[in-house]
């Protein structure tokens, strides 16, 4: 997704400061824990939909280089600032589209995406693009949600209503809020 978003693409969560602050709490240990045991120190990693860069910076501490790509120029600048503040100099951040990644074929050992596919109108196209920039023998690592299977306790009618409404809005925005269940087929 580009900063100007491809026609028809809508990012349901938006870039409100409250949302971004929540995203800033994410870490590679929690959000990419399934990938970390497979990440080699000499790896070149692409983080598609990197947001404010907290996961990206964590990946950069374990890899040779990491490039974070996001649709929002403001979020990319925030991610750059975070990397500088944390003294991480092997993380690069760029504004770009997951549908048209600004990198040559076979550029990365790992392509990672956290909670991105659910927002896309064509996740398979984005995954094909991930495969294009992946080196032979590389790894695509994708994590996403299935909002329809989320449960909570105690049961709150307001939260149940919000969940139904979120699924409806995300779907009408062209995304797939049940993306987690479709990942194996999309890949």
Topology at a glance:
Blueprint: H1 17-23, H2 28-31, E1 44-48, H3 54-60, E2 65-70, H4 73-85, E3 91-95, E4 108-114, H5 123-133, E5 134-143, H6 157-172, H7 179-186
Parallel strand pairs: 1-2, 1-4, 2-3, 4-5
Description:
The chain is of the alpha/beta class and 187 residues long. It has a single domain (17-186), classed as Vaccinia Virus protein VP39 (Rossmann fold, 3-Layer(aba) Sandwich), CATH 3.40.50. It is 35% helix and 18% strand. The protein is built from seven helices and five strands. It has helices at 17-23, 28-31, 54-60, 73-85, 123-133, 157-172, 179-186, and strands at 44-48, 65-70, 91-95, 108-114, 134-143. It has a five-stranded parallel β-sheet with strand order 3-2-1-4-5. β4 (108-114), α5 and β5 form a beta-alpha-beta unit. The longest helix has 16 residues, at 157-172. The two termini are 19 Å apart. 37% of the residues are buried.
Termini separation (Å)? 19 Å
The strand line-up of the biggest sheet is: 3-2-1-4-5
Number of H/I helices: 7
Give the beta-strand count.
5
Q: Helix- and strand-based class? A: alpha/beta
Helix content: 25-40%
CATH superfamily descriptor: Vaccinia Virus protein VP39
Order of SSEs, N→C? HHEHEHEEHEHH
CATH architecture: 3-Layer(aba) Sandwich
Average of per-residue pLDDT values:
92
**Tally of distinct domains:** 1
Q: What overall geometry do the principal axes of the alpha carbons give? A: globular
**Beta-strand percentage range:** 15-25%
Largest sheet: 5 strands, parallel
| CATH class group | Alpha Beta
């Amino acid at each position: 997704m580009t900063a100007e978003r491809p026609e028809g693409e809508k990012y349901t969560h938006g870039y409100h400061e409250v949302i971004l602050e929540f995203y800033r709490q994410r870490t590679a240990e929690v959000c990419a824990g399934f990938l970390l045991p497979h990440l080699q120190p000499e790896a070149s990693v692409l983080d598609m939909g990197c947001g404010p860069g907290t996961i990206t910076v964590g990946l950069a501490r374990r890899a040779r280089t990491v490039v974070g790509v996001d649709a929002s120029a403001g979020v990319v600048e925030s991610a750059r600032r975070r990397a500088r503040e944390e003294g991480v100099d092997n993380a690069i951040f760029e504004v770009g589209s997951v549908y048209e990644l600004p990198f040559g074929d076979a550029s990365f050992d790992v392509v990672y995406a956290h909670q991105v596919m659910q927002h896309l109108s064509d996740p398979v196209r984005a995954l094909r693009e991930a495969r294009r920039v992946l080196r032979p023998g590389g790894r695509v690592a994708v994590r996403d949600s299935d909002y329809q299977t989320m449960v909570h306790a105690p049961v709150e009618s307001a939260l149940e209503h919000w969940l139904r409404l979120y699924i409806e809005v995300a779907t009408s925005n062209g995304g797939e809020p049940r993306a987690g269940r479709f990942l194996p087929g999309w890949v």
